[in-house]
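Submission sheet (multi-component)
Chains listed below:
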Amino acid sequence: MPVRESVSKVHVESPAPRKPTEHKTIIWALTNSAIGVAAFLITCVGLHAILPFPEIDGGVSQKFRFFAAHKDEFDTLFIGSSRIYFQISPAIFDRVTRESGLPTHSFNFGIGGMYLPESAYLLEQILNLKPRNLKWVFIEYDELQTKWSPENQTSRRALYWADWKRVSLLLRKLSDAGTAPLWLPNPAKLRDIMLRQKKEKNTRSLLTFYAGQLEKNYTNVARAADIPDHFLSRDTKERRASYLGAASDGYVTRPNRMSAGQAAAYERGLADAMAQAGTRRLSPYTVEAYRQCAQEVRNIGVAPIFLITPSMTQINIATESVGVPGVVMAFNNPRDYPSLYRSSVRRDGQHLTKSGAEEFTRIVAANFVELARAGEIK
Amino acid sequence: MSFVEFRFLWFFLAVFIVYWTMRNNAARKVWLLLCSYCFYAAWNWKFTFLVLGSTTVDYIVGQMLGRSERPAWRRFWIATSVCVNLGVLAFFKYFNFFVSSASGFLAWLGLPASVNTLNIILPVGISFYTFHSMSYTIDVYRGKQRPISNFVDLSLFVSFFPPLVAGPIVRAVYFLPQLVSAKKFSNVDVRGAVMLFLAGFIKKACIADGVAPTVDRYFAHPADFTAASAWIGVLFYAIQIYCDFSGYTDMAIAAARLLGYQLPNNFQFPYLARNVSDFWRRWHISLSSWLRDYLYIPLGGNRGSRGFAYRNVMITMLLGGLWHGAAWTFVIWGALHGTALLIHREWTRFTEGLKWAARGMRWFAWPITIYAVCVAWILFRAHDLGSAGTILKQFVLFRGGGNEHFHRWFLLLIGGLALIHWLNSRRWFAESWRQWPAPVFAAAYGCTFAVVLLFVPPHYTPFIYFQF
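Outcome: structure written.
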């Protein structure tokens, strides 16, 4: 073939389009993935910051909204489960303290089924509102709960509090990793968890559940409904009153008493429980959770007071040198407070009747005044 | 582990990174096989032995079919494969159904028999991987597929995790050739795959799980609701099952694509079908084509007399119904669809060449089809025949006994979703995002996903087709 011809052929043929190499394609894909992940995280954080307090059942939202609107009116706050909700009457508490020369204006932020860590999260949110006149916070004292019933695991109530502070403590407790800054899970415990052995049959599911809740919480899963709820509140007066009580102080009465059969069973259970009085120490994870709560409360110049209610499941809690940073007011000894354990003032092993609750509130208030006068509560 | 759970994201990320880091095709396949078994073990590790057993039997049958020349031996080996696979399926899925049905029948004859059912756990996805596996031996028997000597390849085909638990049903002739050569990342349509995953995620997590509580409430106590609410309940279920199943399929196809594999399409806008035949060409395409090729045609298909062909249609649809679940409601659901297919065939024969019929059907074909499909869904979803009767009374005869009712804006939601479905079939949402620069697309995708999560319910509802 003549040289000229071959040269002209080379010029005529168009160059083949360059295909990016495999390596370059992967680098390019990784770069774009990083951009996508960054955009995702920034959007999640941004949305998390601007979304209103979530709409939670059981009176959480109603009480939070009410307290936010009247935050500077109260100087005393009670927070905890139904054992606070149905058993502390702010009206009676305020009357006793007023008559004793230490006037207060209190609010009951008890919510049915609200234990640590949910109560710690809610307390943090309340403190973030910066209530100017708040002086004392009574926090219900009980073990950090790691179990959620399967039917409640699907609710938003099980999700809204699942931030890093709460979930990390739960994960530490479940894996027995200690409360030191460095996580050191117990190897034997980890093995049992992985193999679902001994007492750890459900621990793996719980670990997965809480890790999932954390992810869902930070990625704002199911939060769209909060936006219309925030602007078009569907709360009726009756609904609000059912959670806030007739006096809008957060206290709701539960007057029913036990039947004769229930009372007999209660008496038997009480005798059994008294045999184990003061034998259960709080786990270090619970103490750590209360230490965090106390720190946050003190940070805004408020005094934390821990309250053990008169309940069958609380009788065995040890109150001596537990390491909780704050005053502990304990009413879990039936021998010291027999009037609170009579079957005639009890709805069940956990709760008091209306008259029992009133009596309990009076005792709490009297103890509070006494401690305040003694300078133990500042 | 499900596609809409966060832990799947972490799982897939690990699979994806390690897979593309490997260069050797054999190593990649072993890695995918390992991950697929881990994926399945997340439900119940004991049932991984069932998948392994099914694969082993079909591997041996494949080898023996490759070596046997005599038709009698070949028939023996294929019968072995079919019996083992269907036997396992029958035991785990249908044993209690057959026992309790037989007991009921004997009682009806006045011969009460005391029979015990077993407490059998249904292995998730058993109907799907059994059909995957059977397609291999049947195709080898028919000479459409060469016997596979590499056990890893066959195992990966049977247990490949994206379609493992809820389809699409993949055939050996479709998938096995894809295992031959190593995939190149530069050939993967990442943008198309992640968009498909997002579409599937929205369908499942936002729409299907969003309407699920309403559907559950209605079907739990249908007699408490008005006839108008019955319509909402049934239409919501039609939306739920489509979005749930096609959402899973979209995510499965997308996950496979990201690993360089193609899976067959399973849905083609089924609710826009204009007759029941058309519906079955658009709904669960991989199952309907599987039943057509491995059941209907071997039964004789359209050959022979009209009665013979119709018998074949009814057998196929009844077994198709039974494939979905061990209950009479599913059998009747299959029978309803079979009957509708026969009516459609007769109508087509009757109106052939009649212009007025063609013109009339232009307007009525779609509403009649969607109505028939919804009536059949009632049988599919109802707890038992009694409650199906109650719902049919409300939905067909407009007779509702209860006072409870759903919000009227639910109808607007149905209308909105129908409009989106139609617009999507017209490709309104397709491909414009392909023109965007890659970083812009990535940022927009991240933001969109974060916003989509706002609309996901707090609880995860298992995929409906997991139970099949």
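Remark: Chain A touches chain B at residues 19-22, 25-26, 28-29, 31-33, 35-44, 47, 153-156, 158-159, 208, 211-212, 215-216, 219-224 (CB under 8 Å).
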